User: What shape does this take?
Amino acid sequence: MIRPALASDLDAMAAIARQCFGPSAWRRGQFVLDEPETSQRWTLVATPDPNTAAADMPGACVGYLVMALALDEAELQALAVAHPWRNQGIGSALLTAGLTTALQRGAERVFLEVRAGNLAAQRFYQRFQFLEFARRPHYYHEPDETAVLMRWRWTGGSGL
Assistant: This one.
């Protein structure tokens, strides 16, 4: 299930960030919840389906997505899924919901950066038609690494 993030999700989001990104992870205070008055930024979380074996974890955050909008361009600022929940379609569901929200709010393009060494993430984004358009050496720290810049452009049609 995908829903807007709540203040009660922040600890879980920070823990997932540490698990996925190590020393360079966002800390609890860096996450911003939805800004409904401006629609400029949104944070979504994935929670286990209450009809599954994880029903003992109602409302628990197992993944998150953060996006921001400026005019007709959106930026995917963060996307992470807790290790035990990977390869179950949660990242795809979060990204689909994020892109849908971006389109509803007027975005025509979405940008992101990903570590050059994170080939699995690059392949994931390519499945959603994100294309590499540039690289930024020394963009990431802890460890130092190049960023691959990717862009997604809405081409119309049905579905994402």
